[in-house]
Amino acid sequence: MTNFLLSHQALLNLCIINAVLALSQYLVLRAGVFSLATAGIAAIGAYTAGNLMLRQAVHPALAVLAAGLLGGIVSIVLAVPLARLRGVFQAIATLAFVQIVMSLALYSDSLTGGATGLNAIPKVVETWHLLAVLAAVVFVLSRLGKSPTGRAFDTIRQDETVAVSLGIDVVPHHRLAFILSGCIAGIGGGLMAGHNYSVATAEFGFHMMIAVLSFVIFGGLVSLAGPIVGALLLTILPEVARPLADNRMIIYGALLIVSIVYLPHGVVDTWLIKHQRRRQAALSAKSGPEAAVKASS
Amino acid sequence: MTSLVLQGMSRRFGGLFAVRDLTLEVPSGKVTGLIGPNGAGKSTVVNLIAGLLKLDAGSVVLDGQDISMLPPHKIAAAGIARTFQNIRLLKEASVLDNVMSGMHLHDRTTLFERLLGSRKVRRQELEFADQASGMLARFGMAEYAHRLAGELSYGHQRRVEIMRALAARPLVLLLDEPVAGMNDVESADLARLFRSVAQEGVAVLLIEHNMPFVAGLCDHIHVLSSGELIASGPADSALRDPRVIEAYLGS
Predict the structure, then answer these.
(1) Is B250 exposed, middle or buried (0-12, 13-18, 19+ CB in 10 A)?
(2) Chain B: nearest CA to A115, how far in angstroms?
(3) Per-residue pLDDT tens digits for A166-191
(4) Whether B183 and B244 share a structural domain
């Protein structure tokens, strides 16, 4: 087991980083914000942490923290125009944001190293660091998800008119999800900088946007396990399918299409819904209403 | 004594008045009926009160305060809850979660506490679940607590929507055709519930076109036709008004 883990450590690390980025994307989608900004903010986080570690010799932990903070600050600014948009218009606006970030990264040589990127960043991020960050993000999101805010997110996503009729103010909830998502994306980018030796534009942008979206759509966007499982499966899959070399992306795409058509709630949420139905059937067969109410708390 | 007062409420769509100069009062502790044939503007009235549509003229006054200029979520916060003519539940969520979503206004925790999931948040969640369970029991729905709302029968979905509205503990409850598509037994059950809700001091405005149901339940009836009030009064006299009969049956 230990041997197996060691030989696949790089893959495991990649899975965890992708899971963090997937959770950033998950949060906005759960709150009904169709934002694609994660890929852009992760880039900002990565360049921030990379620069701080490489040129200012800042402690890696502080550098990652700063990346998260800057991700949050950029999101606060971006949230202002975004609050006036809905649905597909939010997607287009955030897509434009990602493209602007990528262009800036490519052309501001002095800050980002341009096309060559930032290189020779000390690799200081270990698996347990990554796990600790993932655990912290999962903790906060699960706590928030099980509070009235989580319910408000779900209500807004499913029906905004119902949400306002229940006294839920949509804009602050959208803003909260977006800013938190930005912090997580910034941290994810910071971790990449401290883990990959280098930061290059090719890792971010459109490519990453599609990847993190796929993680969430494939895994599911209600339960917290959804994006994590999605990131895990879709990160491992290309490695397992390595013998197929060039056809890898075809399999990847086919799997996504199959999951969208047949499991529109994603792998995890579909399973949970089925599980809940079974449990409900078992409960009502056994002891009727009282057990059902007890099981609620 | 709280009450909802509509004063000279008007709303035009294009050149056509959907609601014209409507004035009526919905007192607390009573079930007030607003009836009228299809297209009379009944649902428009609900959407105007709830703030989903803006008034062209007139005002909506709750406890002496004009709420007609507030955004919809503030109107809900002022104490107005509603159901929808076409049921709008969170189909992917459990019945219990649907009812608990109505308690959003009673959240007393801070964002920081919710981010860290403090004991206060967990205690409040338990309280909410408890209250919601109590409400499910009152509506005879306890056994459905963990079913997904989208899987329930039509009548049960209606009940969930009414519970969700009541979970906000509103001063005013707007019911937009709550018994549409139900049989007489189900309607009679709901009528009993509406009466008991009113007895607890809530001002209930019932939008319907099922006349016998309204006549049996409402203390006071207003009849709307083509956006205008054509009759008001106690149920039996309002329904015998020749203008009302004409509006429903033609002359």
Answers:
(1) exposed
(2) 39
(3) 999 999 999 999 999 999 999 999 99
(4) yes
